[in-house]
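For the sake of clarity, the format in which proteins appear in this thesis is described at this point. The fold follows as a row of integers, each naming the local backbone shape at the matching residue. One such record is shown here in full, so that the layout can be seen directly:
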Amino acid sequence: MHILITGGGGFIGRKLAQRLVRDGALRGRPISSLTLVDLAVPAAVPAPVPVRCLACDISDRAALGAVMSRPFDVIFHLAAVVSGAAEADFDLGLRVNLLGTLNLYEAARAAGNVPVLVYASSAAVHGGEEPDEITDGVELNPQTSYGTQKAMGELLLSDMSRRGFLDGRGLRLPTVSIRPGKPNAAASSFMSSIFRETLQGQTANCPVPRDFAVWHTAPRTVVANLLHAATLEGAAFGFNRCLNLTGRTDTIGDMIAAMTRVAGPLAEARITWQPDPVTERIVRGWRARVRPEKAQRLGFVTDASFEDTVRWFLEDDVLSPA
């Protein structure tokens, strides 16, 4: 079983690689090699099998083709220009999120072995005139360039699966919190920083009010659901290979209260509350309530509480960081 992770230098890519190494198998077969690619060479992941860590710009078709000259059995496509950056630089987002994704799909098609391809889409494909609560089958209506690029990747994934070029399955990820590492250009970055930084003695700003509701999920849960998507048979997804992933709806205030129940009141005192109209305009275009019946029916898991998320962050990324 040969596995490729694009965006392998990011926090989800690294956590996914570590989980794959621990499991040692996927889809009932032992893992024989793991390849991680990102713009910069990803950090090494200790493993009993060969792990290649390569620098590759997925928008460079020739460079990506060289990486994929050997067929992969399973591909996890996590590489992307995040929401705020794609909104600030349309051409960059288009080049990576759309053309880079197309390059990957075409390379997977050219390999000729119909690989399983798990595509990390986003809840940002929803918005605009859609209902306040998203149900399966609601027409996509993204209100950002990032969401639009992800939606186009979804349509290509389903069509190329229909044609038998690859075996795709796309997951519309909720906001992932608490993300380890440093703040990034994602519009949702504050939804991690107000917990990540403050739990480690630093200040962080929240640009939206306490009653702002968030559709979110924990890193551990995202990794579990990415792996679950890879193990399911493609036919289980039906004609549309993409679905709304499971998540939770909580207000920022609810999430802060959960942090306080786990870690005490000091972290909340380090949060500042300065509005940011640009960030708020983007995130208020996203839907906070989703009824993911298809994902639940297929066995994708949901966080029980944000308290768990706080505990997992402290265990995985503060007390014993990778």
Notes: The radius of gyration is 19 Å. The longest strand covers residues 116-122. Residues 2-173+218-246+290-302 form a domain with the Rossmann fold fold (CATH 3.40.50.720). The first helix runs from residue 11 to 23.
